[in-house]
Amino acid sequence: MTRRDDPAWCTPAHLPDELHGFDGSVRDGLGVGAPGKLGVLDLALAPRGGTTRVVRQYQRAPLHIYRPIHLDPHRPDMAFVFLQQQGDGFVQGDRYRVDVDCADGSAVHLTTQASTKVYGARDNYATQLLNLRAGAGAVLEYLPDPVVPFRGSRLYQRTTVTLAPDATVLLGEVLLPGRVARGETHCYDLYRAELEARRTDGALLFADTLRLRPGGAGDPGSPATLGGYQVVGSFTALSDRMPPAELVAALRAELAPVPEVFAGVSELPAGCGAGVRVLGHTSKAVQAAMHAAWDRARRCLLGIPAPDLRKG
Fold first, then answer.
1. DSSP state of 181
2. What predicted TM-score, i.e. pTM, was given to this entire model?
């Protein structure tokens, strides 16, 4: 078995070909595998005493969590887990891996403490692997704060979700154009985020890739990508608690009046749920639309509203 202090444990098994061109030796700074460059977080959560608690925890700096809190009055059993990172953000050569196993009947909300900064890279790139598992009847939400890619940054993220047929999983992510106040608008080298969902028997439900590469194929300014918008958000609702067509209709109705955004909602393959993409010119507008989608999905699938996380 591969050890958790081995870079292979934290590196995707099959890297996209375009990343191999960025895989150079770090000339100025710590290279891949150096202390503090391999972040590992391995969590298992399960129902205990009427609430969801952490039953297994392994963390390797710079990734860590504090004690989960329970702040949703409509779902007091739900554990809110804040994923945290020592330091300011991703730098070249970082390899992070997060594994979260939510047992049958558990309720978990994963988020981050602040926006994720991705610093410029001259010799290498950064990766993050996120493996989420939701057991029978479990509810799992993953809604991190936005990603902020700096000039010259390179980030590859791969999220794999494995869920039981009667589990409910809500996922969201927002990508900002960069440090706009410093004149950086989509000046990164590469941003690639892959999402894959499977049943517990291994059957593929769907796969989605958001790939942006300024100045090349996948340029954010192209009509085929962001089409002049600056901020992009993605929201995914996986559940069998409501027919997908009805969920799509509900999300469309919720997003239609949200100002200053362009939003689309589609039924996902295999009848597993609905997918949302939101485009806008400001973080505030896109995040308002993302919250509206999260709230409506919760009301439809769980019968409760989204809580106030008091962030920002």
1. G
2. 0.95
